[in-house]
Design brief:
Layout: E1 23-27, E2 30-37, E3 44-45, E4 56-58, E5 63-65, H1 76-87
Antiparallel strand pairs: 1-2, 2-3, 4-5
Length: 89
């Protein structure tokens, strides 16, 4: 899928503004897009109109998830605890 650019050539021309953004993308000091943080993996993503990417909402954590890879409710703190336990074996 080709990147959509706005009139200034920025690659987030189809980005959707969100009500409570977790972060922002700035290019040359200009605000280009809002980002949302996944409650499970803590990754940031840009909501883009018509991208076809399936996002979701975790009812247990009350937050957005980045996609099918984060469907299982495993908050980031729990993932860190599991990684530490694996490292101690």
């Amino acid at each position: 899928m080709a990147a959509v650019v706005d009139a200034y050539g920025h690659p987030y021309g189809d980005a959707v503004s969100v009500r409570k953004p977790s972060g922002a993308i700035l290019l040359d000091g200009a605000h280009v897009a809002d980002t949302v943080q996944c409650v499970h993996c803590n990754g940031h993503f840009v909501m883009q109109r018509g991208s076809g990417i399936t996002r979701g909402w975790c009812r247990n954590c009350s937050g957005m998830i980045c996609g099918p890879g984060c469907l299982t409710c495993r908050p980031h703190e729990q993932q860190l605890d599991l990684a530490e336990k694996r490292g101690h074996r």
